[in-house]
Design brief:
Radius of gyration: 17 Å
Strand content: 25-35%
Largest sheet: 5 strands, antiparallel
Number of helices: 2
CATH superfamily: Jelly Rolls
Order of helices and strands: HEEEEEEEEEEH
CATH architecture: Sandwich
Number of domains: 1
CATH class: Mainly Beta
Shape: globular
Structural class: alpha+beta
Length: 172
């Protein structure tokens, strides 16, 4: 019998976090959709030092929405040459809870806190061979571990700078 609904519970999230921390990729998703569905809906758990190769969704063009449920993440957007153009910090303790990334935008996501969980939504169906266009200027997932570690460290530096408190202006 097909389920009529599936609750998103703290137990489900805790289980996802525990499983993700035991994996080499240090991340894991829980799909609510079937691969052929017209909308992909999932919980995605990220831990520190989980590497998501910068990518974009162009074949076909798809927007991607992340809504933070737990933790703290940085979303980095890139120019075509790999230069970071924007950094957004999502944090459940602030007003920044989600982001809608437009189709064709180079992006990646890094965890600033262990067990950071988002609800991720994008158009389906999921076709693995064309879902992501990976950035040619970034190391691929599963590639040279030292190269990935160095690149990821640079992303964390950019995210840390973006997270610094803004200087307050003082009247003269």
């Amino acid at each position: 019998m097909e389920l009529k609904c599936e609750l998103i519970t703290t137990n489900l999230i805790e289980e996802l976090i525990l499983k993700s921390q035991a994996l080499p990729r240090r991340r894991l998703n829980h799909n609510f959709h079937q691969l052929e569905d017209l909308a992909q809906r999932m919980l995605n758990c990220f831990n520190k030092n989980s590497y998501v190769c910068p990518h974009r969704h162009i074949t076909p063009p798809k927007n991607e929405l992340f809504y933070l449920i737990r933790g703290r993440l940085a979303i980095l957007l890139f120019e075509d040459d790999g230069t970071v153009s924007d950094t957004y910090i999502l944090d459940v303790k602030t007003q920044n809870l989600g982001i809608d990334i437009k189709a064709g935008t180079w992006h990646t996501i890094i965890a600033l806190e262990e067990g950071s969980v988002v609800l991720e939504v994008k158009e389906g169906p999921y076709v693995p061979m064309s879902d992501k266009d990976f950035a040619p200027w970034a190391p691929r997932e599963g590639g040279d571990p030292q190269q990935i570690a160095g690149y990821l460290e640079n992303l964390y530096v950019v995210a840390a700078i973006a997270n610094l408190p803004k200087p307050q202006s003082h009247p003269l």
